[in-house]
Amino acid sequence: MTYLDPLADLIRSCLPSAARPPGGADDLFRLYAVLLRAKGTRVTDEDVHDAWSAWMQTVDDGHASLVPFEELSPETRAADAPYAEAIREAARRLERAGE
């Protein structure tokens, strides 16, 4: 466990209950933790998609959504929004806690 794991757990805890992260996504949430540290509340849906793409390339390099964000359908783009909002909420919580 590293300093990124508690941040990844915080992001998970900020997800809405309707969000269904893929199984075995610990490495994905560590990438989201990097986004939290690097961008905080400025993280975008596109940033989340880029992190997901880096992760998915190691899981299924033929996945249909491994394209730039702007080439995704609106429905697929919308799937990134809860994760971006969870990262922004985690950043707000850390700011309130003085971290």
From TrEMBL:
Highest taxon above the source species: Bacteria
User: What is the name of the protein in this document?
Assistant: Uncharacterized protein
Tell me the organism's taxonomic lineage: Bacteria, Bacillati, Actinomycetota, Actinomycetes, Kitasatosporales
